[in-house]
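Handoff note, outgoing to incoming analyst
You'll be picking up this chain. Sequence as last confirmed:
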Amino acid sequence: MITGHHPAVTESWPVVARGDSLDRVAESLPAAGAAHLWLLDLTGDPEPDMALLDADERTRSAAAASARGRRRFALRRQALRHLLAAYGGLTAADVAYAVGPWGRPRLAAAPPRPVRFNASHAGDWGLVALTRDRDPGVDLEALVPHDDLDAVARRYFADRERADLAALAPADRLAGFYRAWTRKEALIKAWGEGLSHPLDAFAVSLAAGEPPRLRWLDHGRRPGDGWALAHLDPAPGYVGALALPGAAPAVSGFRLAGPGVRQSSYDQNAI
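Most recent structure output, in case you need it:
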């Protein structure tokens, strides 16, 4: 179990199989004050169960530009259905979605056990956050070099964030950029407002040695108190963030057994 804003993790997240093992983990999520994170490996040989997906999911999968993209999408949605079924007390086939006014997905009807969720993906990985009592936001990004980080920062970052990014050593600037980006994305997903909330209207911390936090809102007119942020290093070459309203939760991380689970390919060192 991981607690606080930026705690260390000394072992890899355990691999949990679908069925009784997954059900036991899901039942262990308390009614308040905790979050479960699931890392999904979208590689490997098994094919997704397309019959499990609904018509909208099958349409969206078919619209992906490549066979690899279609498969990744289907595997993510299949895994999300299994997780929501276990945590909500449903069957995977009975999971039905609705979308909020700004595009935030939720369950269409209240399940037997309350569950709130958010998901992200990058490359071969997916990430799902689940809670009982508050809406989470989660983001996952690959540390892909960018031709002009300064141009992106000028467009989307607050003045304080641009100054903090410029102050980093050159070797840490790419990671610092993505620390800020994932935290900002996780926050707007937790708020449920999408990009209707300007990214430069609030500021987050981004230095490696500084706890992740929301500094301020509304261009500095409101403090960032009341929001918890956690930094995630889920796999080599990837960075992520979890955002939740209220106090920092107890967070536990798991990997869902399935296609391509790489049991020793990474070491969890922060969440």
